[in-house]
Design brief:
about 250 residues; mainly alpha
């Protein structure tokens, strides 16, 4: 990786794994970072005839695409850790902070979100209240999925504009394919195998730690992803800019 981007890219890879683990385990088996996996889940739901289960995957796909497109339009042709790229990462941080706050409130039984996400069992005399509670809970769940997917779309655009070898921290299959191709085909470029392995470990580590949090400390589960983005943003201040091209002598 070029010019000190290692910590930033590894932190964003950790975030990608953490977000996917959280949304899959806590928000109804939906991927909001890995769109390939999300499309597979969408197809599985459709194949089983469970169209209601496919709604979250559709929301994630649309939200991810919106986040990706908006970020690319905002960044334009900028590359490297420019001010606009830091603003985009700040937007991702704000989205994940909102998600973490909403999820933490939803874990409090007496709160409005807690009642929405975990409605009390209704007796047979109140079917309307039960249906309304389920509708609100589903709306909150889909809003959380959308926030996570928009954030991951923004992150994909950011890592693309950083021009690191990994390309995107949300699409590791392509990086793995390119790296192995360069490794096995001399003269096609630097494979960066060590860096790729580090990215893979960071992504898996983010997923593993988030999974433990979902089991042991549910309210803090989204904080892992939040910490990853914050680390990337802080570490970007220490990224060395690329060296300026040498000036050609002026010919008389």
């Amino acid at each position: 990786m070029l010019h000190g981007n290692r910590v930033s890219v590894l932190s964003l890879a950790l975030t990608s794994g953490a977000v996917d683990a959280f949304t899959f385990l806590a928000l109804g088996q939906v991927f909001t970072s890995n769109m390939t996996g999300n499309l597979v889940l969408l197809g599985v739901s459709a194949g089983h005839g469970r169209l209601a289960d496919a709604v979250g995957s559709v929301v994630a796909l649309i939200a991810f695409t919106c986040g990706l497109g908006a970020a690319f339009r905002f960044l334009g042709r900028l590359t490297g850790w420019s001010a606009r790229i830091r603003v985009a990462v700040g937007v991702e941080l704000a989205l994940l902070a909102g998600l973490a706050a909403a999820w933490a409130l939803a874990q409090i039984p007496g709160s409005v979100l807690g009642q929405a996400m975990n409605p009390a069992p209704a007796d047979g005399s109140q079917p309307a209240m039960r249906d309304a509670g389920q509708a609100v809970a589903e709306g909150v769940r889909l809003a959380m999925i959308a926030a996570a997917a928009v954030a991951m779309g923004v992150q994909s655009a950011v890592t693309h504009r950083l021009h690191t070898f990994v390309g995107s921290t949300t699409f590791i299959t392509g990086a793995l394919t390119s790296s192995l191709f360069r490794h096995l085909t001399p003269g096609t470029g630097e494979p960066h195998l060590a860096g790729l392995i580090a990215v893979l470990l960071a992504l898996a580590g983010g997923a593993a730690v988030t999974t433990l949090c979902v089991w042991l400390l549910p309210a803090a589960a989204p904080v892992i992803a939040l910490a990853g983005v914050a680390t990337a943003l802080v570490s970007s201040a220490f990224v060395r800019p690329p060296p300026a091209p040498p000036h050609e002598p002026v010919r008389a």
